[in-house]
Amino acid sequence: MKVVQRFTNEHLEHGKSLTPDQVLRFLDDFRRLHGNRPSVSKLISMKVPEDLLDAFKTRAKIVGIPYQTQIKKLMKAWVNGGG
Predict the structure, then answer these.
(1) Is the CB of residue 32 less than 8 Å from the CB of residue 42?
(2) In the chain, what are the domain boundaries?
(3) What is the C-alpha separation between 69 and 66, in angstroms, rounded?
(4) Among 71, 69, 78, 70, which residue's Cα sits nearest to residue 20?
(5) CB-based contacts of 46: which residues, under 8 Å, 6+ apart?
(6) What is the mean pLDDT of residues 20-40?
(7) Which residues contact 57 (CB under 8 A, 6 or more apart)?
(8) Which pLDDT band holds residue 64 (cuts at 50, 70, 90)?
(9) CA-CA distance, 51 to 55, in Å (whole number)?
(10) Is 65 in contact with 74 (CB distance < 8 Å)?
């Protein structure tokens, strides 16, 4: 049997007042609470100046980390309020 969660009107109104940072913090806490399930990755396409990408790949190689992994780390840090 599937559990259905019901929310009070007060709870729903509170949710509408949350800032984007508060929503992200809630989602992060929720993920931690429910374990580290693997997230589904989505293929994206974006334009980056070629010289910037080459420099990024070179630095990532020197540091010993795949450049796409480094991009994801930077994205996570930015979402969590860093850099």
Answers:
(1) no
(2) 9-34+45-79
(3) 5
(4) 78
(5) none
(6) 79
(7) 67
(8) very high
(9) 6
(10) no
